[in-house]
Amino acid sequence: MEHEIGDAAKAIWKLFPRKSRLAALNLGGGTQWVTTRTVRYYLDKYHLFDASSNSTGMDDVYGNRVATFRRMLEAHIESGVRYKVHYHDIGDGHNTSEANFRAVLDIAKVHQDKLWIAGLADIHKYETERRGAKLAIENRSERRIILKVSCTTELELYDQPLTIDVTLPESWATERVVVTNHNAREMDVRKVSAPAGGVLRFDVSPTEAEYTIEKTLQPN
């Protein structure tokens, strides 16, 4: 286990020296280890999390994979939780035909405006950070709102940016709105549509910080 888990983790760290060391461990269904230590020991030692469960196998032998993917994806979109699928190999004569793989991609494309497609580690980081995050209004006035973000996760490992959506007051609809961080640096802000109206969306680090949302004079 030290070789197959530990040495593999070290090799990944060496490839990405400036990235978080947190990674997913996906235990194969046919793998068996007889050990003197628990799997938890190796997970903690090498900054791993167990990503083995709750995955839909996409091998054609299971039958109706495209229909199953459509049904499962739509159910997970409705409930707002992550959905994981796995492939062994793709192509004619392999576990998944190219036609079925492309059909699944077409289904995902139909729903692309509702999806964030990412690796297991980034998704795990985001979910963990979000559970440990708090957002509060620190101060407000007619032209300015100060938001305070706090997060209990360790930034060295949990470095996936969090997303804040802000629905603006109706009186701000025609104003130019700027978001700045604690260093007074302007943030990259996207405007998105939502049922409640226009929304400002911006990404923040999962740590304690303040952000100022301010309406400014329109340029001449």
Topology:
Blueprint: H1 2-15, E1 23-25, H2 39-45, E2 48-50, E3 56-57, H3 65-79, E4 85-86, H4 98-110, H5 120-131, E5 133-140, E6 144-151, E7 162-167, E8 176-180, E9 190-194, E10 197-204, E11 209-216
Describe the structure in your own words.
This protein is α+β, with helices and mostly antiparallel strands. It has two domains: 2-122, no CATH class; 131-216, Sandwich (Immunoglobulin-like). It has five helices and eleven strands. The protein has helices spanning 2-15, 39-45, 65-79, 98-110, 120-131; strands at 23-25, 48-50, 56-57, 85-86, 133-140, 144-151, 162-167, 176-180, 190-194, 197-204, 209-216. A four-stranded antiparallel β-sheet has the order 5-6-11-8. A three-stranded antiparallel β-sheet has the order 7-10-9. Helix 3 (65-79) runs parallel beside helix 4 (98-110). It starts with a helix and ends with a strand.
